[in-house]
What we know:
single chain; mainly alpha; 6 helices
Amino acid sequence: MTERKPPGVPFESWVDKQIQDAERRGEFDQLAGAGRPLDPELESSYDELWWVRRKMAREGLSVLPPALALRKEAEDALAAAYAAPSERIVRKIVTDVNVKLRDMMFKPPPGPPLGMRPYDVEEVVRQWRERRAAAGDG
């Protein structure tokens, strides 16, 4: 497009005419993505970090607030304790995660509250024993 806007013609009208002329010439017919829906991210409000979010999604990464990350870690630790091969390992797993839970309880980070208390080591060990006995690993 080398044509200049003629004096006295509103800019919007001149742009609309340029687009209509290009459509008549078929210049939009072979565009990449023609006939496919728009990316939903394009339809949402502007996000300065769109490229970071897209990169993280592509790489399979996620970032949780500290309280939610610790909640997941604590739940995973409890599952690992129940699957542990020995009582000593159960006690170590639960004791280690309890240190982190207590730290967060007394020094809350920004974000949603943790909503968890440290596990009762003796109760976890009792349940671990019951599960092993029920599974026949006694």
